[in-house]
Amino acid sequence: MNIAPRNVPEIAGEYNLIDSGNEMKLEQIGKYRIVRPAPQAVWSPRLPQSEWRSADATYVRSSTGGGEWKFKNQTSRKFQTLYDNIGFEIKLTDFGHLGLFPEQAHNWQWVREVIRTRMAYTNNANLEVLNLFAYTGGSSLACSQAGAHVVHLDAAKGVVDWAKDNAKFSHLNDRPIRWIVDDVTKFVAREARRNRRYHGIILDPPSFGRGPKGEVFKIENDLIPLLTACKEILANDAAFVLLSCHTPGFTPLTLHNELLEMVGDRPGNIESDEMIIAEQDRLNTPGRLLPSGTFARWQGRDATKPKKAEAKKKE
Questions:
Q1: Most buried residue, 39, 148, 219, 292, by CB count within 10 Å?
Q2: What is the DSSP letter of 13?
Q3: pTM above 0.70, yes or no
Q4: CA 132, 133, 138: angle at the middle one, nearest 5?
């Protein structure tokens, strides 16, 4: 019996979570079948071990930290794929990431909808979005597809270059996207001094990270000060803020409360939940949901809407 605890929209693309269990996940990405760790999958796999053993590549974590890929079949460590209408260059990195985070796809759909809705009733006025800890750029590219002007910022030049490649593959390289390598805290402080304002801010902070000059970010110490700083550069007519993370202990309610502290009494709505990936076997049979981080997102109520309605009424 399949039990669906919530309605999960389907995401089109060349990624599929085939099975999960024993703290691992079995994924199909393009033509390759891959096994990677999934600490949240503390249940038993649905499929027999023969299905898992057929994987082309498996990432095995070391007891001393880090890990390595073990290959059964000839597998390219770099290839391209499409997911949710975004092109991604997949890399089998030494730390087990691929550059694709399918659990974010529902957030990509959400930001597209928010941006398009806002632009529809502001005569396509420029909508400025800041994406912090932007990594390989899924959120940046989703915002760009919807028509926003985007500032994409990450501390690592290599992943910013990776995101640029994804933009080119997605036919978005000519769109207004600023690619910046910087420390997030220092950049936000400079933007406040410059009196720059953004209609949308996206944050997906790591548990621990370093800036380009060795600056240290620890989510438990530095997220609240960063959100406070971001509050200063959030436009009065802001459309949205999206906050997500993969840090254990940062529950949806935790992020909800932190985001509420940032947006204060601004008119709008906050929703929070787990980010999930739905299993889908080769027969397209829906399976369980794999929790893969948390999110909270605020959508503002634009002051221009009631003003337009009031003006029309006076006419």
A1: 148
A2: B
A3: yes
A4: 90
